[in-house]
Write a structure and sequence with these properties.
Strand order of the largest sheet: 3-2-1-4-5-6-7
Structural class: alpha/beta
Number of helices: 9
CATH class: Alpha Beta
Shape: globular
Distance between the termini: 55 Å
CATH superfamily: NAD(P)-binding Rossmann-like Domain
Number of domains: 1
Helix content: 40-55%
């Protein structure tokens, strides 16, 4: 047997760009094999796959929409067919609609359905797809990428914040019910410097938000995808006695909001 036969396997949803790509590369550096998932960004996904391969990882590129249960099951089965194991799942794929929270007419019911379909239902479906394989192996780690929006009620829209609040609650439910074999935790990033956020806010608003975020956070920092990837990878590779944890990775931004204000 070669050392490749002992490499662990992680599925990272939404991993063509941004945080998902950073997590995949980080794990590749740690001798993990990775599933790169995308919905539309094929060229970026290929670039991420190549970067992981250059780091020594074996990879699997899968086009899948996690709001579709069949796609979730196909992604899990594809990983099992290729490697015969799934050691970790990072539920990173997420969507939003940028809308002023003070304007209740800025969102329609369909916006909530679309956001929940990916951020909540998709995460549930992916977790369900990998659960029997992790249970059979006697171990596994699921990491949900939530947001500080789910704690503070802030964020790109009320629908987005509500979906992340639901995701946090679901993390607790899954952690309680998938043990002892499977650990389930969530990271709750604050502002991440990303193309996605810049596109949603626009260049001018993005730069203003970046300056303000650095002013109001105790660490005076806005995270990069690589910064947040470190937290996700910790839950994937470490903390074998940690489950049901919501880790806020926001440079301390949440400290300015009740009821989480430090005393």
């Amino acid at each position: 047997m070669s050392k490749d036969d002992f490499r662990k396997v992680c599925i990272i949803t939404g991993s063509a760009t941004g945080l998902g790509a950073a997590i995949a590369k980080n794990l590749a550096d740690m001798d993990w094999n990775v599933v790169i998932n995308y919905t539309k960004s094929l060229e970026e996904a290929k670039e991420t796959e190549m970067a992981c391969r250059e780091r020594g990882a074996d990879t699997l590129l899968v086009q899948a929409d996690i709001s579709r249960d069949g796609d979730c099951r196909r992604m899990a089965e594809s990983a099992m067919e290729k490697w015969g194991r799934i050691d970790a799942l990072v539920n990173n794929a997420g969507v939003s609609r940028f809308a002023s929270q003070s304007d209740l007419n800025a969102l329609e019911a369909q916006d909530f359905h679309d956001i929940y379909a990916v951020n909540v239902i998709g995460t549930y479906q992916m977790s369900r797809a990998v659960e029997p394989h992790m249970k059979a192996a006697g171990q596994g780690s699921i990491v949900n990428v939530s947001s500080v929006a789910g704690v503070t009620g802030m964020g790109s829209s009320i629908a987005y914040a509500a979906s992340k609040g639901a995701l946090n609650t679901m993390t607790l439910s899954l952690a309680r019910n998938l043990g002892p074999e499977i650990r389930v935790n969530a990271i709750c990033p604050g502002m991440i410097q990303s193309r996605w956020l810049k596109s949603g806010l626009g260049e001018e608003r993005y730069e203003k938000a970046l300056r303000n975020y650095r002013k109001i956070t105790p660490l005076q920092a806005a995270s990069t995808p690589e910064d947040i990837a470190e937290a996700a990878v910790f839950f994937v590779t470490s903390g074998r006695h940690i489950t049901g944890e919501l880790l806020l990775v926001d440079a301390g931004m949440h400290l300015g909001f009740a009821p989480l204000t430090a005393r």
